[in-house]
Amino acid sequence: MIQRLPAALAALCVSFLLSACGTPEQKPVLVFSAIPDQDEAHLMQRFGKVANYLSEKLDIDVRYVPVKSYSAAVTAFRNNEVQLAWFGGFSGVQATQLVPGSYAIAQGVEDPQYLSYFIAHHSSGIPYNNTVTGDGFPDGMEGRSFTFGSKSSTSGRLMPEFFLREQFGRSPEDIFSRVGFSGDHSATIALVQSGAYELGALSYKVWLREVAEGKVDLNKVNVVWVTPPYPDYHWVIRGDVDQRFGAGFADRVQQALLDLNDREILDAFPRESFIPATNEDFLPVLETARSLGLMD
Amino acid sequence: MNTTAARFRRTTLLIALIGFAALWLADTRITTGDPGLELQRIASGFLAPDFFASDQLIPAIGYTLAFALQGVAVGFGCGFLLALFWRWRLVRGFSAVIRAVHELFWGLLFLQVAGLSTLTGLLAIAIPYSGIFAKVFGEFFEEADRAPAHASPIGSDAFSLFWYARLPLVWQHMKTYGAYRVECGIRASAILGFIGLPTLGFHLETAFRQGDYNEGAAFLYLLMLLVLSLRFWLKPMLMPVWLIAALVWAPPRGNVTEGSLSRFLTQDIIPAPMRQADWQWHQLGDWSSMLLHEQILPGLTQTLVLGTAALLVTGVLSLMLFPLISRQFGHPLSRSAGNGLLVILRTLPEFLLAFIFVLLMGPSMLPGILALSLHTGAIVAHLCGRFTDTLQLRSDASHGLNRYAFEVLPRIYPNFLALLLYRWEIIMRETAILGILGIGTLGFYVDSAFSELRIDRALVLIAAGVILNLLVDAFSRTLRRHLRLRHSLSDLG
Question: Which of A221, A239, B70, B78 shows the greatest Cβ crowding within 10 Å of its Cβ?
Fold first, then answer.
């Protein structure tokens, strides 16, 4: 491959040494991350606007880092690679548990009343029902194949599994003939619509959006059960930001988020607006995660 | 009769038997719903790729190439150093262990310490590749002719002997193999995007997962273009230029924050029960037995079943596919078409194949087996096909099926078996990806452990996978030795 491999290797070693020396301390930059509950494409474009807004409001450089998964976001938050993050319910409590002193500062106005939809392929014969009834699951779900979304999604896994266990008194593996993880809300719709899985559970927001966009054939797949409401997405900030960026910084970030009313920026999340939040708001999620053995 | 051919027949029978046993044990129930709509969307995505949907195309290509080139270069160097000590058992064992862990898992581990950084991308490729290079180079040295060394003047020092009498014999093979590894490195680098590094895989996976097939197809075409065009721009002469460009584009630098390394070593990887101040042995026992019964054993069983079934299907597929590119069959046009098909099959990410098969056949283990087999089968077929090009057949040799069955197949069968057995270890490793897609292999539990941020569990599960891999490798080596198969130097794959 290479005649000059030694030279290239030497160059590589030198750059290693250089990078090991580290870069001089620069002006602090606030780095944040976010995974929206739908449409994860073009994150840089969309959240770049959020970064600009925060930068203007806080008078400091703000940078957005795209992440792939909730757990990657939590790891970055824990390592102080990001100081502020828009988490799902479960990843948010993971973060506040792992980083002492970190806390929730805001949530979407929709988030205290988040829902999951259970959807079914028409061949299952389970009747359509998109209202929160408080009743148990419809008949005919047992013994069918079922798919969650991503493993650490609150609306695609955590809460659906919680309600299944609560009402059937058994694990999903015992209720259904097969249990899968599609990895994504949209993938859950695609898999149930194609009949690969007979049932699935996902975020109500993704369902409503895909229906509105005409991507769903309602003759093939439809909602059969709606979970009771639970708290989901929220902003979490590290406790040590005041030390790093100046006293009262966390409060200013919170205020900036609550003041947000630019439709275009809010659509990145997508939320109507943000309202204050505290760690206590998400205790139910924490309890659920513990009861499912997903956290110690 | 104990002829050479009989040994091949017996081994083939053995592979077929365990393969069928695995297929029988595996859940292969086919349930087809109505996949038409989704397949139509996928097809229209591939027909109308959207290259302008993302502004991240250029950086994604840059990072993909940078991690691949840097990782392969470092792996090449370290593998070479390790290969010098190949007679030491410790070095062989060490190399086997580091290559048994999938790039994705190395990446996930480094993510904990070095964050989403260029260093993570580099190390995730460089470490397993060091193990792979060490093995291949080590075997090159072992198999190389010793005559020049013996013929050297008595009293020549070891350094000169190595430099003048041994290295020149294998250097050409090392370069060829290194170039081949760059192609693998690009694919591996792209796949690292699945865990969040900013390579092509990042956008590719998001797009396909969310059903943006037009955009996903664009990224996939680009990846294929990169791999297909390699031979035009990956010239030995230009290699230093490319490497320096890679270093300038993505200087390897970790986001190592204060205390993250010590936290990783002293807390994260310590089994959860042992983190309490007053822990008891029985707590550790409960934890281990929970892990063993709920995750390790089911995971190992599924991995073994899936990997073994995939081995058989891979074998059958590669025997069917290699004539497509062989100069002994067809004509130039059909061969280029065959070549294109094989490139497509081995570049299509397994997760996409698996998703399409899940749509078609429902969520059994079959989609995983097929995805893995098509991918690996295309690679083995490619290598076998290339090998047939070197065969000299008599000018009156038969044609068509007779040529295949009586002229070509018997001649390449030893190489085919060697390649297939060698690939077994790699197939087992690749089941990791299917685990991340939700098929219940060991990789599934590793992925769950990482997403629950339980690094202690992830490490134990990864270790279990390593042991399985070492066992499979040892078994395949025994079989190869029994057959006296010595893979020809450059076609290891």
Answer: B70
As a whole number of angstroms, the distance between CA B479 and CA B115 comes to 42
State which amino acid sits at residue A100.
P
CATH of domain B1-30+269-493: 1.10.3720.10
The token pair that represents B60 in the structure block:
């994604």
pLDDT (0 to 100) of residue B344: 87
Question: What percent of chain B has a predicted confidence (pLDDT) above 70?
Answer: 98
* Interface contact A220, partner B, CB < 8 A: yes
Q: Do B239 and A183 touch (CB under 8 A)?
A: no
Going by the DSSP 8-state scheme, the letter that residue B467 receives in this structure is H
Residue A182 and residue A53 share a domain: no
Residue A196 and residue B359 in contact, taking contact as beta carbons nearer than 8 Å: yes
pLDDT digits (tens, 9 = 90+) for A227-268: 999 999 999 999 999 999 999 999 999 999 999 999 999 998
Min distance B419 CA to chain A CA atoms (Å)? 23
Domain parsing of chain B, residue ranges = 1-30+269-493, 35-267
Positive or negative torsion for Cα B325, B329, B332, B333: negative
Q: Do B247 and A15 touch (CB under 8 A)?
A: yes
Closest-approach residue (CA) in chain B for A180: B438
A203, A156 Cβ separation under 8 angstroms? yes
Per-residue pLDDT of A121-143, as tens digits, reads 999 999 988 887 767 899 999 99
Q: Is B34 exposed, middle or buried (0-12, 13-18, 19+ CB in 10 A)?
A: middle
Crossing angle (nearest 10°) for helices B409-436 and B350-361: 80
Closest CA to B239 of B65, B62, B84: B65
Specify if A122 maps to a domain.
yes
Instruction: Write down the pLDDT at residue A1.
Output: 41
CB A153 within 8 A of CB A206: no
Nearest to A289 by CA among A71, A141, A32: A71
Please tell me the total count of domains within chain A: 2
Q: Tokens 């694919």 label which residue? A: B187
Whether residue B175 and residue A1 make contact (CB cut-off 8 A), yes or no, is yes
**B243 phi, psi to nearest 5 deg:** -65, -40
| B128 within 8 A of B102, measured Cβ to Cβ | yes
| Assigned token pair, A48 | 């770049």
What CATH code would you report for B35-267?
1.10.3720.10
* pLDDT per position as a tens digit, B373-390: 999 999 999 989 988 888
Same domain for A206 and A238: no
Count Cα atoms within 13 angstroms, Cβ side, for B413: 17
A contacts of B174 (beta carbons < 8 Å) = 1
Question: Beta partners for A120?
Answer: A199, A222
Q: Strand A84-87 and strand A234-237: pairing?
A: antiparallel
Which conformational region is residue B34 in: left (phi greater than 0), alpha (psi within -120 to 50 degrees), or beta?
beta
Angle at B98 between CA B116 and CA B73, to 5 degrees: 65
| Structural domain range at position A174 | 115-226
Residues on chain B touching A4 (C-beta within 8 angstroms)? 239-240
Token pair 């707590």 is at which residue? B283
Task: Provide the sign of the torsion angle of the four alpha carbons B87, B89, B93, B94, taken in this order.
Answer: negative
Alpha-carbon distance of A60 to A56, in angstroms, equals 7
Mutate to test the interface with A, among B171, B294, B452, B455 (most CBs of A within 10 A): B452
Position of tokens 């294929």?
B224
Question: What string of H, E and C letters represents the secondary structure of B9-72?
Answer: HHHHHHHHHHHHHHHHHCCCCCCCCCCHHHHHHHHHHHHCCCCCCCCCHHHHHHHHHHHHHHHH
Q: So what's the pLDDT on residue B489?
A: 41
Q: How far apart are CA B371 and CA B346, in angstroms?
A: 10
Look at residue B37 in the predicted model and tell me its pLDDT.
87
**More reliable by pLDDT, B343 or B124:** B124
CB contact A190 to B (< 8 Å): yes
